[in-house]
Amino acid sequence: MARRWTLATLRAECLRALRRKDVRLDVRRLEKCQAQLHYVPNGPAFVTADPMQVGLINAAVHEMLHYVMDEFLDPFLGVRMKEVALDAWEERIARTIITSPAEYQAWVRAIERKLEGDH
Q1: pTM higher than 0.90, yes or no?
Q2: Residue 65 belongs to a domain
């Protein structure tokens, strides 16, 4: 049976993906986008975010949404439609993270660990 997604399960799955040992996060200036993801499905991933353009929580959420959901969305949505969906989910998930102290701390810790190189 197909998995039923909720915003809560999607948020939890994105955090779990970010915490994977083979997921890296780096910050640097990007010219053409706010953040980018290079990955192998269900394998290693490398996220680069430009903190001058986007908050790291939003960047991590958005790129982990790609990591988690691309395989489900790619057969049905073009690139632009997929971005519309991911942007909407990102906004709702990030708002929940920012307004929940426990969620906020979990994401901050995960991001800090990645930036410190503790994968």
Answers
A1: yes
A2: yes
